[in-house]
Each structure stands twice: as structure tokens, then as C-alpha cells.
Amino acid sequence: MNQRPFPAGRDRPFRPLDGAGPRLLAAAAGILCLTSAASGAGVVTEGDRTWAAAALREEQSLPARAAPNTVGVLYFHNRTGDAALDPLQKGLALLLVTDLSAVRGLQVVERVRLQALVEELGLGKTGLVEEGSGPRVGRLLGARWLVGGILTSPAPAAVRAEPRVLDVPQGVPTGLPGAEGELAEFFRVQKDLLFQILGFLEVRLTPSEERRLRRPCTRSLAALLDLSRAVGASDAGDYGGAAAYYESALREDPGVCLAGDALRDLRRRGLVSPRAEAGELLESLRSSTSLTDALTPKDALRRGAPAAGTRSVPVEVRIDFPQ
């Protein structure tokens, strides 16, 4: 991508990443990302909280400037007037973190680190950071650039995302044009936003990288909302609720990003009980086989009727689930 998708007459000219500009990838290709796609929807651990507490204690001694290619993403503020869209405050940030983490040469702050920090700052589980607090939060996160913004509703069943990119050392935010569309096509709004941010950072992508980044996490709004609710439940310590939302997202769209990995992570950490897993297995069996409690008498006759000239022999089938 060679164009910067914002007006030429901005109040403040863009300063490339301390001179790196479009050459950022070549200069920093060997730097590892701070996060990965799998970690975006992860669990806030005691290690994350310990890090956040230490960052506040040592705030005065933190470096004045971060590496030029470090990016943090704040939760977006829901200003649509529809509380049902509150999950997208974290959901949009989650998708941006996931996509930005796939860009070579960018270091992206882990979402769980942001969550741990905003809790330590007393901002609650929602983690909404007001504009005036951005420079401090960015410095504590070690980010050179901090992305945030608001969600509004320009029309019924429509949504608009208005992003800002904060130059953390300078404390100066720059508004980008934003993106809007039908709520059912939120995946397109998110991608428009992503490429505006990459344009601002003057990141050049190969055609194959751009194609990969344009693939949506999901085209299902219901799946995205459930994925977002799962992240919120996990941040609140409701791991059973998070697992249920991840499972619901996967039922809405089996290919939805992050949900499967996040669900497996909950199990690996022992945060989801075996009984819950057994229930999920039973639900899977019911959806893919002809268990009698999922069939009407008509279905049983249609699927299980013996062929002409044969006898049916009763067979006992027993399925034991872990207790």
C-alpha cells in the first residue's frame, strides 16, 4: 500500500516512525512482536497483574521514548446509544491487535497487558481510557503509538468507527477519516480502519500480506459479539461464561478467529471444568448424530427404519462422560 488514506491538509504533518517511514519493515524485520493472534483473547494472569503493579511503582524511571515501531490499541468508546454494542468496545480493539500483530516489523502490546494496566489504574473491567490519560497509559505500556477512538451510529442499523492515533511522547493525537457501514458488515468497517492505521504508520505491505490481512475474522456479527462477550467475561474472571460465549461464537461461525484457541487455553489452564467439556461433547454429538432424545418419532422412522425383509434387533448403546 503506497498511499496514506487521510487528507493532505492535516493540522500537523506526519512524522514517519523516527525517520523509518516506509522502510520500517526492512529496518525492523528481525524484531519480535510483543503479542500474537492467539494471545489477543487470552486470560489476564497474575503475571500480567504483577507487571502492571511494577510498571506503576517504577513509572518515574521508565524510558522517555519507546521503540519507534511499538503500537498499543485501546478499547473504543461506544457512543452509539445502543448498550447492546458495548461488547464491540473490546471486540474492535481485539481485531485490530490481532491484525496488527500479523504485520512484520510492528511490535504490538498484548491486550491482556492493557487490561491488567487499566485495572491497576482503577479504570475497572471495561478498561475505557479517557483521552487525557492516553499519554500516561501509552508510556506505561511502552508504546510509541496508541490507537483508540469511538463508535457512533450515523443511521439506524449502521455504525461508524472514528479512530485517533496518539503520538505518545508528544502527547498529540491525530484523527483519521474513520469508516462506517451497515452493522451487519462490521467486518468491513474494521478492515477499513486497519488499513487507515497502517497507512498512517507508512507500513508497506506485499500483495500477499495485504490479501491475508483483508480476510475477516468472521462475517457473522453474532459470532463477533459472542467472541467479544467472551473476552469481557474472561477479564471479569467468569471463565465458565467466557467458555460458553466462545462455544456460542463457534456455533455461529465455526471458522471465527481466536475463539477455538482461547477455549483450548481455558481448558489447558484448568479454568473450565470437565463437566462443562462433557456438556459440549454431548451437544456436538446431538448435532451430528441421531441420538433418540434429539429426534421426533417421524425422524426416527425416517432415519432408522429397517429395510424391507429385515428385522430390527435392539442394541444398547451407553455413553459415559467424565464426571
- Helix content, binned percent: 40-55%
What profile does the largest beta sheet have? 7 strands, mixed
- SSE-based structural type: alpha/beta
* Tally of contiguous helical segments: 12
Characterization of this structure:
42% of the residues lie in helices and 11% in strands. The protein contains twelve helices and seven strands. Strands 1, 2, 3, 4, 5, 6 and 7 form a seven-stranded mixed sheet that branches. It is globular, with a radius of gyration of 23 Å. 37% of the residues are buried.
SSE layout and pairings?
Elements: H1 24-28, H2 46-57, E1 70-73, E2 77-78, H3 87-101, E3 107-108, H4 111-120, H5 134-141, E4 145-152, E5 158-167, E6 172-175, E7 179-182, H6 186-200, H7 207-214, H8 221-235, H9 239-252, H10 259-268, H11 274-288, H12 297-304
Parallel strand pairs: 1-3, 1-4, 2-4
Antiparallel strand pairs: 4-5, 5-6, 5-7
Helix pairs in contact: 2-4, 3-6, 3-8, 8-9, 9-10
